[in-house]
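@channel anyone free to eyeball this complex?
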Amino acid sequence: MDFENVTVVALAHNGERCIRRTVDSLVAQTRPPERIVVADLGSSDNTYPVLCDMLGLGLIEHEGKRALPPKGEGAYHGVSVTTLRMPPQATPGQCLRAAMEIAWAETTIFGFVSTGAVYHPERIEKSIAVLQSNPIVVAVVSDFTIEREGGGEHREYGRPFDWFQLLGGPMHDSNCLVRKAAMEQSHATFNPQLHHAVFYDLFLRLARVGIIYHLPEALHVRPEKKVKDTEAVEQEVIRVRDAVVKGMA
Amino acid sequence: MAGKNAKAKAQRQRQQEAARRKHDAQKVLAGVGLDLSDDLVGVGVVFEHLGPSQAVLFGVNAINDLCRNVVGVDVALFVEQQMRPSVVPSCPVFGVEQMASWRKPLIATSTATCLAALETEAPIIVHYVVYPDFADSTDLSIEEVRRAFCDPRVRVFVRAKDYVALLRNEFGIEARFVPDFQIAEMLKVVLPELRR
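replying in thread with the prediction:
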């Protein structure tokens, strides 16, 4: 019994094929979360209809048309699931903030799942054990496996937290569990203006109040990510890093 | 008569107390592979820095525990970048340049610090793999990386069970699994070897 209230926020963008698998992995945890919020970030495919289908939500009258509700709630395998549809122009930061606000009051630990990622069944249990045994730990990340498009897998060894390495380059995986109290302490939620470095920005701020713990086990699987605009990502990372370092001075 | 008995009883109690203390001291020293008859042992631990990081959090806490509980082991820290420590160590801290004259075992916490330790005359170097940093280091040649893991003076310990298989495939070595920088577990293996 851990007395924590865990809310997992799953981001979905054009993930009609994998969203069901992601949510299934969350409800099948050895220590399932109290609530799952799935935020659809302006998908152009059937991601949102698939989500509504999972929760048994039907068409409603919305703005004079029959459409799926922009926000819906239901139970999926005994876990409370909330779906949220964000407009296509919304940034990931805005989307994550909106999803967190739904369960902010009662939650003590927030989990985050990227599009298409699948959690290992013990992921949440192991992360909670670390957060409870070390009060200085504010977030838990882990190693992961990348599923290649042409088939095959690749094990990715993530670096444990180190302030110097964090300043040197962005964290490349956003699947983590974060203590809510640490977010409040560091005034660090997601920056709504950011498009790419939204988790890097969060980790830089969290790192000022505690340790980001790296579990050296492959505790989730995620599809291979294609970065369309590497230059834009790098520029945003540098801008975020400079802003945080300037704020420290 | 009663006074004589009391004196003998007190002496017996003192002897029992001394035997108990000796037993306790033996037990503590056995935890790091030493015996009461051994000389004072020195161990150096090399960190890249003492700023906020997991290696420092676990490493310095484990070293502080060792300093508090074990009398026979002297620990010194060597640091590449001098900065304010995130966990205050209860042992002396030197710059890596002081390591050149160190002739006792060293514990390195990364590939780079292991290569620096190999430049010294340390008889045994423990390479504690916090994470497999060789995979993404571009400034080291494969020969240098191989040296940090396969040199005859190097003993490799890893933080995660998964890394044992990784290092076996990569370098053909058999690393030992020691979670969360348990320095006593590493010394238990290294110090008896040094004595031999």
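from a first look: The mean pLDDT of chain A is 86.
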